[in-house]
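User: Hey, my collaborator sent me this sequence without any context and asked if I could get a structure. I don't really work with proteins. Can you help?
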Amino acid sequence: MDPRRLPADWPYRDAARHVIAGPHRWWVIEAGAATAPVVLLLHGLGASGHSFRHLIPGLSATYRVIVPDLPGQGCTQMGARGRSGLEPTAQDLRRLCDTLGQAPVAVIGHSAGGAIALQMALDTPGLAVVGINAALSQFDGAAGVVFPRLAQGLAAMPFAASLATLWASPRLVDRLLDGTGSEMEPEGRAQYRRLVQDADHVRGALEMMAQWQLAPLLARLETVTSPVLLIAAEDDRAVPPHVSEQAAARIPGAALLRVAGGHLVHEEPGQALLTPILDWLRRHANPDQVRTG
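Assistant: No problem. I've predicted the 3D structure and written it out in structure-token form, which is a compact way to encode the shape of the chain:
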């Protein structure tokens, strides 16, 4: 998406800029004092950095907050089609941080962003991770084969993204959002309608789905040595709470926090995630413990 086409009231539009790092031209929100410890925020599949609009103000009062749109999604321009999978995305995010001259002490990821955060922690021991409804489960049975192949086929079709945007009627987007189990204000719904009406954004999401390989990360959960907090929303219909419970049981020393809300709990009006996240970060996000692997 061309950022010039973003609505004037798009969250943190004036605090974002393009940064060329690795193969991609990233769109990155930066907020907070330049000398503060750095926290990286990673959105989920089909979203953008705007999804952290309710958490950025409180986090940036203590931390330097870096919020990129993931490759091909939002306003980040994908520079290499083969780098939308889990491991390449984690690698390219580290390159982005290096280009910015920033060394995060923590990564907060929602849904697929939570899986990317854990992948980054495998290569950067000590990097604190907060996963909000982290997508840490495979599709079961035939769906695990069919869905990625379907996305791969669609992403390869020249007109697929344009056709996909035709499905993005306001009514359908509202049904999809309602299906997450989250209540969202009208402004938030309008922002998702804007995203899914953009062909480049839809293609970027399809590329991510097509290349997503979660099994190698799941096989290494017991080897994670970083501090980890997994937040599970009780009414999440996309990533049920038991997914976070099972992952937390496998990650040494991981903490689990169950909260009210749905899959997009961090976007719900009145959500109360900020205080427990800040409390946990103060105890576990220690720059002296982060080591580059």
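In plain terms: The chain has one domain: 3-142+214-289. You can pass these tokens on to your collaborator as they are.
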